Amino acid sequence: MLHPADLPQTIPIFPLPGALLLPRGRLPLHIFEPRYLAMIDDCLKTSHRMIGMVQPREVPSGEPRLHSIGCAGRLTALSETEDGRYMVTLTGVSRYRIREEVEGFTPYRMCDASWDGFERDLGPAERDPQFDRTRFLRLLGRYFESEELQTDWESLGEAEDELLVNAMSMLCPFEPEDKQALLEAPTLETRRETLVTLIEFALAGGGDERLQ
Questions:
Q1: d(CA 158, CA 124)
Q2: Residue 204 has what DSSP assignment?
Q3: Distance, C-alpha 117 to centroid of its chain
Q4: How do residues 91-120 score in pLDDT, each as one tens digit?
Q5: Where does the Lon N-terminal domain lie (predicted)?
Q6: How many Å from the N-terminal Cα to the C-terminal Cα in the chain?
Q7: CA 72, 77, 82: angle at the middle one, nearest 5?
Q8: Least confident span in 11-25, 73-87, 197-211
Q9: Does the N-terminal or the C-terminal CB of the chain have fewer CB atoms within 10 Å?
């Protein structure tokens, strides 16, 4: 188990709209841009092998501004295609707050990261005592049907609370700002409530349908 003192002060950051990483979650990525291929190569040379995922804010032109809170993951799997692309997996370690961007000679962006306030991310999986799994899965089934999505329902039914809520938060095709709200939820219960609200809103087409 990691401690805050084990986490690096400076990390590379990967702004990717809609790509959500959460602590203890796993995010597969397809890396093909030269600057991010270089980021992966450099990451492999470090002891921590950590990359900070973060949601960009839309701006009219130039480098996108970034949300202040992201989630850093450890590079835990990598394979290379014949044409030089990388297929990687990041395993979420902790959320972080961007203190400032660090100027340097890398083609990718770097930041000074603060891990303060996210100590819970380094602990054991969270529980959600108020979680009504049956009602949640019923709602999720309606949502997956409406979005024409497929999943392994048997595995979902057996998943621990955190794995189920976080996996659905990461996988459901919500807007980037909605993904940011799920990331910033202070507890698993709050994230589950936010997730339910987003699913209900999507099912209602912007209306007021509620969990039945």
A1: 18
A2: T
A3: 17
A4: 999 999 999 999 888 999 999 999 999 999
A5: 11-203
A6: 40
A7: 125
A8: 197-211
A9: N
The SS3 call for residue 200 is helix
Distance of alpha carbon 165 from alpha carbon 115, whole angstroms? 23
Q: Per residue in 26-71, pLDDT tens?
A: 999 999 999 999 999 999 999 999 999 999 987 666 666 899 999 9
Closest CA to 198 of 136, 110, 121: 136
Greatest CA separation found in the chain? 54
Whats the size of the chain, residue-wise? 212
Digit-coded pLDDT (tens) for 142-164: 999 998 888 888 888 888 999 99
**How does DSSP assign 101-163, residue by residue?**
EE--S-SSEEEEEE-TT-GGGGSSPP--TT--HHHHHHHHHHHHHHHT----HHHHHHS-HHH
**Concatenated DSSP letters of 163-190:** HHHHHHHHHS---HHHHHHHHH-SSHHH
**DSSP-assigned beta bridge partners for residue 27:** 90
Rg of the chain in Å (alpha carbons): 18
Task: Please give the C-alpha separations between residue 111 and each of 20, 97, 175, in angstroms, as whole numbers.
Answer: 18, 9, 24
The domain made up of 4-122 is a member of CATH 2.30.130.40 = yes
Tokens of 61: 């032109």
